[in-house]
């Protein structure tokens, strides 16, 4: 049997465009596979611009705290493709094994018989095969891009549809206006399936409300039907069923309060799952989600680190992501004051200046790096120029390793180092640190 990496390399060549939103190709393949999408465990379908992965992480932690078997499908991965597929197992889900992944990929490749199909579509079909073969109580299914024409949207009747905050991103594929993007994401709403809507701007919320009315999807909106807020160092969740007084989430940043709230609202809308307040509380305290306001506390990058220097990692990459990350770093500054040094790499499909504007008032300097794992990386010089336009002193470096070494060598204690700008870069950091997701 070929390795999964070798098979994935072949699958890339089946379609000339990495992203080509359509349901026709995956529907054809799923039919040839015997429709595994019709044999999945009950699905919670999650779309949005920011916060999808964190919301899924909260859902998984709370469901597993209740003893539920949970499958998870996410994208992209950080270090290894296996991170995209987590299978339910006693004591908590496990990433798909190399043997099972390679077998599933080889089988869908054989059945597809060389027909045009994108990598995401054919690997989603493989994931559905694996999820259908393994029993579980719930499948947490993350939309890859958009929603309406995303390969995951072949699920006819999920348990719930969740839409996290919507903002401008992937304009080439989804549109240049928030209303256009919201319309695409509203495509996951289904008749009689509850829709849990996280905090949105007015334009996006209006689009989602109209879509829910049109499809007959019962809608629960943050700030209207439920809310999650911090009070006196606690997370307070409130809806028509009452109030929960909970510990703050383990994940850093005030934006995680809203993501946790969306997860709680979803589980409260699904009483048949039987998730208790105690399991919600345990989930908040045990949740893990790499590369989202993650402090590196072990691994190669922190060995021998000067006392008082912190290294943080976040894969945020759009303007709204920059805003919430900067707010989280400001909150850390309020607790322990020290200079903030940025190491940033970004793709050329992203608005670098829009992302960096939020850091202008809090970052002392920026070190720009290439993203070695992507052909779409901006050059360090381009990132440094965007930083300069945003008002942040910047230096380009030839590699991530060079930038990290320079920052750690030159920084005086105390200092806070934030590596950000791309999930691809975050994956390189975790690989370099020797701490890939488990």
Automatic annotation (TrEMBL):
Functions in two distinct reactions of the de novo folate biosynthetic pathway. Catalyzes the addition of a glutamate residue to dihydropteroate (7,8-dihydropteroate or H2Pte) to form dihydrofolate (7,8-dihydrofolate monoglutamate or H2Pte-Glu). Also catalyzes successive additions of L-glutamate to tetrahydrofolate or 10-formyltetrahydrofolate or 5,10-methylenetetrahydrofolate, leading to folylpolyglutamate derivatives. GO terms for cellular component: cytoplasm. Belongs to the folylpolyglutamate synthase family. This is Dihydrofolate synthase/folylpolyglutamate synthase. Keywords: ATP-binding, Folate biosynthesis, Ligase, Magnesium, Metal-binding, Nucleotide-binding. Residues 46-266 form the Mur ligase central domain. The keyword Nucleotide-binding applies. Its cofactor is Mg(2+). It catalyses: 7,8-dihydropteroate + L-glutamate + ATP = 7,8-dihydrofolate + ADP + phosphate + H(+); (6R)-5,10-methylenetetrahydrofolyl-(gamma-L-Glu)(n) + L-glutamate + ATP = (6R)-5,10-methylenetetrahydrofolyl-(gamma-L-Glu)(n+1) + ADP + phosphate + H(+); 10-formyltetrahydrofolyl-(gamma-L-Glu)(n) + L-glutamate + ATP = 10-formyltetrahydrofolyl-(gamma-L-Glu)(n+1) + ADP + phosphate + H(+); (6S)-5,6,7,8-tetrahydrofolyl-(gamma-L-Glu)(n) + L-glutamate + ATP = (6S)-5,6,7,8-tetrahydrofolyl-(gamma-L-Glu)(n+1) + ADP + phosphate + H(+). Residues 306-422 form the Mur ligase C-terminal domain. It comes from Agaricicola taiwanensis. Its EC number is 6.3.2.12, 6.3.2.17. GO terms for biological process: folic acid biosynthetic process; tetrahydrofolate biosynthetic process. Pathway: Cofactor biosynthesis; tetrahydrofolate biosynthesis; 7,8-dihydrofolate from 2-amino-4-hydroxy-6-hydroxymethyl-7,8-dihydropteridine diphosphate and 4-aminobenzoate: step 2/2; Cofactor biosynthesis; tetrahydrofolylpolyglutamate biosynthesis. The gene is folC. It is an enzyme of class 6 (ligase). One of its GO terms (molecular function) is tetrahydrofolylpolyglutamate synthase activity.
